[in-house]
Specification:
Order of helices and strands: EHHEEEHHEEHH
Largest sheet: 6 strands, antiparallel
Number of strands: 6
Radius of gyration: 18 Å
Distance between the termini: 37 Å
Number of helices: 6
Strand content: 15-25%
Structural class: alpha+beta
């Protein structure tokens, strides 16, 4: 799976490995979200009957990344994804079976608190659009076009109230569909993996150059 990284420096190094979050943990978060936001889901299901949340997540050497996708069914390519990213200390690696942040508990580890903050941040974004009392926002979310979403964080945007700090980004990607396409290409195109890695590296380098040119939102743009 190709992750939408906020911190791209480490991912450009081939020795850095990605650790996917445990399947059981992700499924538990999915179930919790689908139950907690049922009223909003019932409204959008009037447009897309199979709408439901899917959750993915990974640990990098310096970043925790959670993606929460509102999918509209196996046969519908339309989807909306919120990526939530937080800084990560690799010394803190324990994960319990509780989707913290949605049901916090005092015994959580530092990593659990980071994961919980990421889940909370992504949930907050979806909660804004899945408002049963605001049909217009429901329609915006159901629309295939990214431009239909008003006030959406199209670039990495910090959520000020979270602790630890979390950045979110919203798009119309469909990670499950992309994963299936990658698996098919891996089986049928022997050159796919090599070409994919080259494309990913070039994309990350261009993004780094763009950030250096425009500034990272903290130090201001670089001018020559």
């Amino acid at each position: 799976m190709k992750w939408e990284r906020r911190k791209i420096t480490a991912s450009a190094k081939p020795e850095i490995k990605t650790t996917d979050l445990p399947y059981d943990y992700l499924k538990l978060v999915e179930q919790t979200l689908n139950q907690a936001m049922l009223k909003g889901l019932e409204e959008i299901r009037k447009i897309h009957p199979d709408s439901a949340f899917q959750v993915n997540g990974a640990l990098f050497s310096d970043e925790v990344l959670i993606t929460v996708t509102l999918s509209h069914g196996e046969k519908n390519i339309a989807a909306t994804t919120v990526h939530a990213s937080a800084d990560f200390n690799p010394d803190h690696t324990l994960i319990s079976s509780n989707p913290i942040g949605l049901d916090d508990h005092p015994g959580s580890t530092p990593l659990e608190r980071v994961l919980g903050a990421c889940v909370d941040a992504a949930t907050t974004v979806f909660d804004f659009y899945l408002d049963p009392s605001d049909p217009e926002k429901i329609v915006q979310l159901a629309n295939h076009s990214l431009g239909s979403l008003e006030e959406a964080p199209f670039e990495w945007t910090i959520i000020e109230k979270t602790d630890p700090k979390v950045w979110v980004k919203m798009d119309k990607s469909n990670p499950k569909l992309e994963k299936l396409a990658d698996e098919w290409l891996n089986r049928h195109d022997p050159d796919f993996k090599e070409n994919e890695e080259e494309e990913e590296f070039l994309s990350e380098r261009l993004e780094a150059i763009r950030k250096a040119r425009d500034g990272d939102g903290q130090n201001g743009p670089i001018r020559h």
